[in-house]
Specification:
Radius of gyration: 20 Å
Helix content: 25-40%
Oligomer: single chain
Strand content: 15-25%
Largest sheet: 8 strands, parallel, barrel
Number of helices: 11
Order of helices and strands: EHEHEHEHHEEEEEHEHEEEHEHHH
Structural class: alpha/beta
Distance between the termini: 41 Å
Low-confidence stretches: 255-271
Number of strands: 14
Length: 358
């Protein structure tokens, strides 16, 4: 990867459960002021708190440029409903939506629904991949221009531009078409944490953005190369996949030096990598990894969102911008444009055009 390749930055704005969206709005606006690609809001059935997708739908009208990516669990949920909710977020945000697909692995979470027992991660990630595939097909099931809204004739939809998806997965089937018109981005951005093996396979097949966790730039580069090779093996253009290093950051003491070994990468802490130091130290790590071609960018999870995100934006990001390593404004209006990803062609339009030509 060339050092001139654009650097992508994203940040988590969650933390302890909060039931007043004002704090989420404030954090999203802060990240937007730093020209970050997107913010995420984590969620799961194992923790209390408001629904992340609904919260970000409330944040959307209070922001103008920042991408909005809630975690959406595909286990115990209907793919048709998931696709409708994410498409709605894309409409509400005028093309800034994404979603991070995740799975629910515990028996306690399964009992919340009572439909089926817990399943192995490999099975659940296969289902998550199928949910992502079904969602993409549902988003395509309305061609652009399917809405006529012709008052004179009373026609609202051109039915020739609606398509059944007839998707058959291992645990569900979807006939379609969608009930929400095709989203502004065509398909909202799909994000997958590719830390585990089963999730990595789903990311290679379906993700626009994948997270990796590594303790050195060399390890991160190897994971990125593996994902790109796997994406190509599935018939995808590997350049359509953005690979971000996931990093938990603690900027509580701006004068604290990085922990030993940070010259070659952050140290492991729990599920992911952990950085403790100051905003300048973090900028050095990001610069080193990106210039070395290890990753396309970073997804940063602040230990204390209100404190650390401010230091990330006004310290780390400001320094990267001063060094001309990160942009000072959003290049477009949609999340796909921020990420340098094109608007996907509609598979059904291509099929109908091909059929008409033949």
């Amino acid at each position: 990867m060339s050092a001139t390749r654009p650097l992508h930055l994203a940040a988590e704005i969650g933390g302890p459960p909060r039931y007043d969206a004002r704090s989420h709005i404030a954090l999203a606006r802060l990240a937007e002021g730093g020209a970050l690609d997107f913010v995420t809001l984590n969620d799961s059935f194992a923790r209390p708190g408001p629904d992340a997708l609904a919260v970000l739908a409330h944040v959307a009208p209070a922001t103008t440029r920042i991408g909005l990516v809630p975690t959406v669990t595909t286990t115990h949920t209907e793919p048709f409903h998931v696709s409708s909710a994410v498409a709605t977020l894309d409409w509400v945000s005028k093309g800034r939506a994404g979603w991070q697909a995740d799975v629910s692995t515990t028996e306690a979470e399964a009992r919340l629904f009572g439909r089926r027992p817990a399943a192995p991660a490999s099975t659940l990630w296969q289902e998550a991949g199928e949910a992502a595939d079904a969602g993409a097909r549902l988003w395509d099931s309305w061609e652009d221009g399917a809405e006529i809204r012709d008052v004179a004739t009373g026609r609202f939809i051109d039915r020739d531009k609606l398509h059944y998806v007839d998707f058959e997965g291992s645990t569900f089937s979807v006939r379609g078409p969608a009930i929400v018109p095709r989203p502004p981005q065509g398909r909202p951005v799909t994000v997958i944490d590719a830390t585990s093996g089963p999730a990595r396979e789903a990311a290679a097949r379906h993700a626009d953005v994948a997270y990796v966790r590594a303790t050195s730039p060399e390890q991160a580069a190897a994971l990125r190369d593996e994902l790109r090779r796997s994406a190509a093996a599935h018939g995808r253009d590997p350049d359509s996949l953005r690979v971000l290093a996931a990093l938990t950051v603690d900027l509580g003491d701006a004068e604290t030096t990085p922990e030993p070994g940070l010259g070659s990468g952050p140290r492991l802490a729990g599920r992911g990598t952990y950085f403790r130091g100051g905003p300048v130290d973090l900028a050095e790590v990001i610069t080193q990894w990106h210039r070395g071609g290890a990753v396309d960018g970073f997804h940063l999870t602040p230990i204390t969102p209100e404190r650390d995100l401010e230091r990330i934006v006004n310290g780390t990001v400001a320094l990267l911008q001063h060094r001309s390593l990160f942009r000072t404004f959003h290049p477009g209006g949609t999340l796909r444009e921020h990420l340098g990803l094109g608007r996907p062609a509609n598979r059904y339009t291509l099929t109908s055009t091909s059929g008409a030509t033949s």
